[in-house]
Design goal:
The chain is α/β, with parallel strands linked by helices. The protein contains 12 helices and 18 strands. The chain folds into 2 domains: 196 residues, 3-Layer(aba) Sandwich (Rossmann fold); 162 residues, 3-Layer(aba) Sandwich (Rossmann fold), CATH 3.40.50.
Length: 411
Amino acid sequence: MKIKNIIITFISAIALVLSSASISLAKVVGDKIILGAAVSLTGKYSTNGEHTKNGYNFAVERINSMGGVKVGGKTYKFDIIYYDDESNSGRAAQLAERLIKQDGVQYMLGPYSSGLTKAIAPVTEENKIPMVEANGASRSLFTKGYKYLFAVLSAANQYLEVAIDLAVEKNGGNPVKIAMAFEQDAFSQDVRIGVVEAAKRTGSKIIIDDKLPKELNDMAATLAKVKATKPDVLVVSGHSKGALTAIRQIAEMKVDVKMLAMTHCDASKLAKQHGKNSEYALCAAQWHKSLSYKDEFFGDGMQYDKEFKAQFGYAPPYQAAESSAALLVWKDAFERANSLDKDKVRDALSKTEMQTFYGNIKFSPAGQNIAKPMVLFQVRCEGDKCENKVVAPTKWAAAKLVHPIPKWSER
């Protein structure tokens, strides 16, 4: 019996050593720096999850082909372990645990959406694993005191507040009437907070404040109210599916509104999916290809757009662009830290100050990017060809805002 116990103990000890060795090596395997990512490849966020993954992979291939990552006199290449979080926050948290505890990942990339990022952040923080995330914009992510979370994108409350300012400006500086329809997820609710704050700041009145249905498949009831009350601006935030539903039903019901401001127009390929029915929609974006930012890996936004399109067969929405930028941040941090130690890399991340094709990146103590503004573009059509034109901020505007939106009877 004693011999059996000794053998079991010995085998257990060997297993523990092998397990520990596996975990310590998993962060760097040979010449590869392994990053982990739980991304929505199925479920309601699958469209944007695919954009996220494509953005990550595009940057990994580019960085690896241009000399990789140089640390301690050695050259490494990036590699990513992916799992499908199924657009489910509970699943996302489980997968973060798996990546860290079983796969031994020491460096994380974020998922798609604020809700899933909020599910993963406590896990990475508890395990002191630095995460550079590109698609979680909820401002509540930056009020928890996290030290290992770094976001390359602007916070969600900034998305549509500029649209309210524009509506007031176009109304001669006078307050406007606002209709709102929002999904009940963390991101959309933060966008709503920004609109509410903009309304208070400008003295404007919110006359419709509706919730989008969970499946984001019908907003006819809200649109009926819009037809009856005639607000000056309608704001909608429901990720890609919500944007597509809004345009489809606005066209079907022939809803006239002076200004329509939305999120996720480019991620949903709104102009391509709905063509002229989407014309004049005003869309919040983290990035647009016409902006003048540059870096050595992708050149400017136009070059990134061209090369991404050639590889993936579609124009990159900002979700792909910001995901690519996250890898540029990782490379920069590893090389400035000149170390693979996760805590030294975390400290280097906190001191990031750089320009990428996507925009300027500098993190506040809370991990929020404080160096990049949002942009607004408007869908504009010539014949059957529709494309997005930046109309704000004025510094980067490529076209003049069309306001008010022509009535359906005049189109």
